[in-house]
Amino acid sequence: MFEETFTEELQRRYGSRPRSQRPELYIVATDPGREKQRAWMSTAVTLVPAPGRTKLITRLQAARGFLTAYHELALAAVLQDAQLVPEYETTIAGVTPDWFVPGRPPLVVEVWTRQLPDPIRVAADGWRPLRDRVHTIPVPVGLHIISPAREVLSPPDAATGKRIVGQLQSWLLSTVAPPVVGARQVIEGYEFRVAQPVPGLRAILHTPTGGGWIDSSLLLEEVRRKVSRYARGARERGASLIVVVAAEAGSGMDANVLKAALAGMQSLSHSIDPLPVPGQAFQWTIQKWSTGVPETFDPALSAIGWLVAGTDSPGTLTLFPMANAEQAVPRLSSALVAWEEGS
């Protein structure tokens, strides 16, 4: 799927843009450091039977919606590692789940990805010029803006942004007192704090726009919505129905939220300042109260999965089997699959 003509088109469309304005698809397809990622993606796509393979490639090659398609492919690669042959968007009882896996029993697998809310994306756009300028500083640290308060915080204009970056660079490259994690400096009315080292060779500004959130009620609603749509088809095929949850970095969703929801605990998870670096965001989960009764679902649901998509490899899948399921999930023989019993 990473043919030369495709990558050349991506270079033409996005190559001249600043780093923060390039879609993730561009980075995956062109970054020399992503060779391992492109290798497993290409292998996984090749193993998807036609005609679904063509549809999946089309979605993977579109910048819009790439993350959702990427999670679907990562899940397929995990299933392939378990010696299964997932078929993409096979029609079953008038609907097309993401994956249908022939077998005894067969599997019907649907993926839900929790993404950053649109208002957060819009707010982040205003900070792109400063983020791009900060990324020219040859010091690999993450920076926070800790004042003014977020309620009155707004991005600087272009002239102020240039002055900020010049002073930031002088501070970060100081040989007299090089900044350490936690060091602070006020520049042009903004107080910056060194948050942590980051991969690569250059500085990264944490987007000061807040992050995503999710509570257990929303998660359970999305799972039940998937189950209601695909339960009939799963029953007609005698299949195990699995709903897999995945998340965009900084969206607030993680395995702890899923575990709490399944245990009957109401919880709220919130992340702040999601970084353009996978997996680096500040997040906390608040347990509000517990019903004391584990959640139950339509017995057509066999398991809920938690997918942690990787970069150099597909990632890992944790399955939470449902105690009241009509059809048990067969044990998947793969080092990429873990099981959480007692759901």
Polypeptide structure, described:
- This protein has 343 residues and is α/β, with parallel strands linked by helices.
- The chain folds into two domains: 50-117 and 213-339, no CATH class; 128-205, no CATH class.
- The chain contains ten helices and 14 strands.
- It has helices at 4-14, 24-30, 35-46, 52-60, 66-81, 118-125, 128-134, 158-172, 216-237, 255-262; strands at 87-88, 99-101, 107-114, 141-147, 184-187, 190-197, 204-205, 213-215, 240-247, 265-272, 282-290, 301-309, 315-321, 337-339.
- The protein has a seven-stranded mixed sheet.
- Strand 12 and strand 13 (315-321) form a beta hairpin.
- It is globular and about 70 Å long.
- Residues 274-284 have low confidence and may be disordered.
Descriptive labels:
single chain; 343 residues; alpha/beta; 2 domains; 4-stranded mixed β-sheet
Structural class: alpha/beta
Largest sheet: 7 strands, mixed
End-to-end gap: 38 Å
Quaternary state reads single chain
- The helix tally amounts to 10
Return Rg in Å.
Answer: 22 Å
Task: Give a short synopsis of this structure.
34% of the residues lie in helices and 24% in strands.
List the helices and strands and how they pair.
Layout (H helix, E strand, L loop, with lengths): L3 H11 L9 H7 L4 H12 L5 H9 L5 H16 L5 E2 L10 E3 L5 E8 L3 H8 L2 H7 L6 E7 L10 H15 L11 E4 L2 E8 L6 E2 L7 E3 H22 L2 E8 L7 H8 L2 E8 L9 E9 L10 E9 L5 E7 L15 E3 L4
Parallel strand pairs: 3-9, 4-7, 9-12, 13-14
Antiparallel strand pairs: 1-2, 2-3, 4-6, 5-6, 8-10, 10-11, 12-13
